[in-house]
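Dear all,

This email documents one entry for the complex benchmark we are building for the journal club exercise. For each entry we list the sequence lines for every component of the assembly. Then comes the predicted three-dimensional structure of the complex as a token string, followed by one or two observations. Please use this as the template for your own entries, and keep the labels exactly as they appear.
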Amino acid sequence: MLHIDHITKHYGDYLALDDISLHVRRGTLFGLLGPNGAGKSTLIRIVNHIIAPDSGSLLFDGRPMRQDDVMQIGYLPEERGLYKKMRVGEQCIYLARLKGLSKEDATRKLHQWFERLDIDSWWNRRVEELSKGMQQKVQFVVTVLHEPQLLILDEPFSGFDPVNQDLLKQEILRLKAQGTTVIISTHNMPSAEELCDDIALINQARVVLHGPLADIKAAHAAAPLDRIFIETVT
Amino acid sequence: MNKIFLVIQREYATRVRKVSFWVLTILVPILIAALYSVPIILATRPLEHAHVLVVDDTGIFQHQFRSSRDITYHDAGSLEYAKRQLAEVDSMDAIVYIPARETTIPTDAFLYYRTDAPSMTVQGNVDSQLQEILRNRILLDVHGISADDYQLLTSTRIQLRTKDIETGRDGFLGIKVAVGLILGLLVFIAIISFGSQVMRGVMEEKGSRIVEIIVCSVKPFQLMMGKVVGIGLVGLTQFALWILLSGIAVGALQATHSDLFSQAQPEQITQIATKGSDATAQMEAAMQATPVPELMQGLASIDFGVLLAAFLFYFVFGYLLYATLFAAVGALVDTETDSQQFTLPLTVPLILVVLLLPAMINQPSGSLSVWLSMIPFTSPAAMLLRIPFGVPVWQVVLSALLLLATFPLCIWLAARIYRSGILRYGQKTTWRDILRFF
């Protein structure tokens, strides 16, 4: 689905990504792990064409990735935000239309999602009236609404209570079952262990572990993922 | 392109729906209507007619005070009698008492009143009549000049008019100064206020991090231009509504008080003037009547179509020039206070024009004015100031072309800064950082 090929990125003198190569298989859940400042968010921004790499290339569906392909991506950034003064429904329609949905499609799909997550009553409320967790839910809906082939979720569980974390996991697994490829960047090792098919561990701008979770666990005597993380990074 | 339209739509709709937009939109026409109705209120206010008793011990002022619409003078004979009248008759307001002194020419007079001090109008009228009567008396007694002759002398006024030698049209410089000042300042205020709205909008998107989602769907350039255009359209909507609503309000005032707005015809004035014998009436008529037609003629001498077109052009392109740069500033900073180090140099050219306004008005075609109306960052305000005075066509064209040519350059520059800036969080940007964006 997505090949990341020898990507390097500098910010001034600072090396953010050093020759990163990764492969995300279609229909799998890919865990992008690593300590703070390892370069995960930079890599995600490059995949989203928000910033350009210094060198290296991206293959999407087996061919060189184009700007248009970004429309097939649903991206939930780590630092989330919505227009605070806008009403929930109106704002979601706007963001969905920017992703290419028609107004009618967006409205219909939004109501479906809102009903399933039991948040339809928020439609006419201003975003600033919602709690942080509620805003995250809305944002998740916005991310997946245009039925992207590739979903990139940066710290999707932060800010959610356990009930909603579980709800989110079920939704992610449901989308995966429908054929969506998912990349999750997280510090939440138990969740990663529970959900991911493949993982990559990035440390100090380099890939230090990459492969199917099962293989990696086998190579580390079935240690828990957070143990493997700590041992590899330190 | 469809997406930039979506951005424009959102920027426009969210602002036009705000209460503050409508408050401002309604408030300005109300203000204009209020200014316009001041003369109506003055003219139709209930008259408080004053009665003033005159006690003259000198014999100079007896029967000389002339009553008017607002004040009636009564000769009272003795001060005792006048005091009784003032105390007993409710309608009496004051006593003018001119005591006899050793000198033949009286040097002081008194205005007595009961409880309420006479109004400024009454005091002013009494004072001016005192001076006038005394002067007439001296002129008549010493120089043998009659009161009528004296009035004729003082009421003659020669009007200096500036005229264009080619067209023969009147210059009406005073009105042009006013119109130029208003236009220049208006465009300055509009550019700054709508430009800083763009800046705040960008800061909001950056601060709430929503920009990270949006730039996955639209190019930063589209987002920036969508915002700039959307807010610009809000500005144009506001201007259009101001003109429309002010027109309606003023029109309604004129319709309901048509008698007050009917312009005094010049013939009427001359008729009054030639009647002649009542010199004061003649002078009063001249004083009241002339400013209005002169103002009207002056306003009529200005081509408002040209002014409106010029205003629209310089507002739109001046705004685009500045708003894109304001957007770039918004992308560079996290808080309003940080923004000042960048907005200050940005607004210096406009502030410079405002500071140089007196010098430019003194010489609307001087080299300072011409230069400032050519430089793209100062031309919107500077050229609008000059337009009412008449500007050679080549200068207007050159100024417009320079502005148009600078505009893509500014957008390019702003887009570069904007693109790099919107995704920088929590770091202070310095001028050196900006250079690195290129």
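Observations: The interface with chain B takes residues 12, 45, 48-51, 70-71, 73, 75, 77, 79-86, 94-95, 97-99, 139, 142 of chain A (CB under 8 Å). Chain A has eight helices and ten strands.
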